[in-house]
Amino acid sequence: MLRYSELEPRPPYEASSVIFEISTGCSQAVPCNFCSFYTKSFSLRPIEEIEAELDEVATWPQKPRRAFLQSGNAFGIPADRLISILELIREKLPWIQTFGGFTRVDDVRRLSDEQLAKLAALGASDLSIGAESGLDETLEALGKVHRAADITEQCARLTRAGITYTLWYIAGSARAGRCLENARVSAEIYSQAQPKRIFLTTLSVGPNTPLGQMVESGEYELSSDYETVQEIREFLAGITCPTIFDCGQESNLFQFRMRVPEGRDEILAGLDGLLAGDRLSKTSRSRFMPAVIGGKWVR
Fold first, then answer.
1. Collapsed DSSP state (helix, strand, coil) of residue 183
2. Cα–Cα–Cα angle for 221, 226, 232, nearest 5°?
3. In whole angstroms, what is the distance from residue 161 CA to residue 281 CA?
4. Rounded CA separation 286/274 (Å)
5. Minimal CA–CA distance to 252: which of 232, 235, 268, 270?
6. Which of 8-12, 96-100, 147-151, 231-235 has the lowest mean pLDDT?
7. For 14-37, what is the mean pLDDT?
8. Residue 95, SS3?
9. Domain assignment present for 171
10. Using N-to-C axis directions, what is the helix angle for 264-276 and 225-238, rounded to 10°?
């Protein structure tokens, strides 16, 4: 049986990937202000354990073609070790063609162009990058160590290396009253980065996180449902690069998934109808709020 040290998020678009835990926790010394996922300190998993799991998977009748490397930022472990693990997987499971995993913008910065090229040659693709926002003020409040300029710079390096990527965006993470600015600036930055996919999730604040404590004390006022939907509409409308826009996270205010620009008009019309109605709170944030978008029930 494959081993996992703790429950960790896995993007829904990686549902068909086989998951290998190659490290535990997140290597960032101070966790992001909103994060409550990782309870264990960062550590590298012994190669012997990884190899034993690969031998087990080699006996499976299924032959998955993609592997998702697990931990807070699996692609942030030392480059030489990461490359050796990918080589080991390719050796033992030759049918696996591509590899994904979480990484941070500053993880990419630490990799040389040569290391990125080697990862690309081994099959690294569609990395999941927690960009979260393109507005420096929001990034600072979220406790991210990168800034907007870093997103476009490091994504350009990935593109040159031949590595595709998904950029995550957290709707409702700007202070109340700043969501539209957050959306407009972020749409410009994300469009410049030209990701394969934009994965949007709505901010959920844990009470024991630094951001949760800031909200509790009144230092940080969360946006309402209405303002958050306005933000999502503004962000979607401002994306100018071809991409997949994925708002399919279960905890979102609602769900939809389509290609930009092909499917955008229908979704924008649905969001406009939602904003014109009376279902959205203009003073508070709901965790779940089923809505009708584009003529279909979404969550």
1. helix
2. 95
3. 45
4. 15
5. 232
6. 8-12
7. 85
8. coil
9. yes
10. 160
Binning pLDDT at 50, 70 and 90, where does residue 7 land? low
Both tokens assigned to 71: 């931990």
Condensed to tens digits (0 to 9), the pLDDT of residues 113-158 reads 999 999 999 999 999 999 999 999 999 999 999 999 999 999 999 9
- pLDDT of res. 299: 33
Structure tokens at 146: 């990168």
Q: What does 4-49 look like in DSSP terms, one character per residue?
A: -SS-----GGGTTSEEEE-EES---SS--TT-----SPPEEPPHHH
User: What is the span of the domain harbouring residue 147?
Assistant: 12-298
Indicate whether 7 belongs to any domain. Answer: no
**What's CA 154's distance to the chain center, in Å?**
15
Q: Is residue 235 part of a domain?
A: yes
Question: Which residues have a Cβ under 8 Å from the Cβ of 226 and sit 6 or more positions away?
Answer: 275, 280, 281, 282
CA 277/CA 291 separation, integer angstroms: 11
| Biggest CA pair distance of the chain | 58
Task: Give the domain CATH number at 93.
Answer: 3.80.30.20
Tokens, residue 227 = 């303002």
Which SS3 state, helix, strand or coil, does residue 74 take?
A: helix
Regarding pTM above 0.90, the answer is: yes
